[in-house]
């Protein structure tokens, strides 16, 4: 199934237009290899990618949170005092909240910042970068150079790999946005916007 810039802009006019040429070209080249090959699968995958990337504006997580933002987003890791200390310091924030999980070292290791979210679905944690590296799809070494996943085509290919690796085509076939969102996000954060994008994409591609 081929998509066009016109399709995407009719469905989501807010998309970052400067990224569309690369996105559409690489989507049409790579999506088929990951079996994102039905209208329903395409709509679900696009909706999630657009949400996660801020409508194709972001290919890296910057974590530039205020103190209030830290307390709301990461209450497990910050209190009123530490939130003030870490506020607006993205590298320190990443190293704290992503430490000692999924292959990352401790806060001092710097792994949290190095393996913060990269790509259009924000691949995060050293183990996920290692799995993508071993998948055979990546060109280059994302463990050594995570920034590879911030540029096309790897920012899109890594998202398509993650989608298939987590078995999300199966849930797209069931039109199950809740399970897809949980497997990407860990919860249902942003579900309303994801569902809004999905409705617009379905309308554009003729799904009622």
Description:
- It is a single chain.
- The protein is an all-alpha fold and 208 residues long.
- It has two domains: 5-59 and 121-204; 67-114, no CATH class.
- The chain is 53% helix and 0% strand.
- α1 crosses α12 (191-204) and α4 (67-73) crosses α5 (80-86).
- The longest helix is centred in the first third of the chain and has 14 residues, at 17-30.
- It is globular and about 50 Å long.
- The protein starts with a helix and ends with a helix.
Q: Main β-sheet, in a few words?
A: none
Count the strands? 0
User: Pairing-aware structural class of the strands and helices?
Assistant: mainly alpha
Rg from alpha-carbon coordinates:
17 Å
Instruction: Report the β-strand fraction as a percent range.
Output: under 5%
The helicity comes to: 40-55%
Tell me the span between the first and last alpha carbons.
18 Å
The DSSP helix count reads 12
Q: Give the mean pLDDT.
A: 97
* Low-confidence blocks of residues: none
Shape: globular
Task: Give the SSE map.
Blueprint (H helix, E strand, L loop, with lengths): L4 H7 L5 H14 L8 H14 L14 H7 L6 H7 L3 H8 L13 H4 L11 H9 L19 H12 L2 H6 L3 H9 L5 H14 L4
Helix pairs in contact: 1-12, 3-12, 4-5
Kindly summarize this structure in a few lines.
The chain has 208 residues and is mostly helical. The protein is built from twelve helices and no strands.
Key descriptive features of the protein:
single chain; mainly alpha; 208 residues; 2 domains
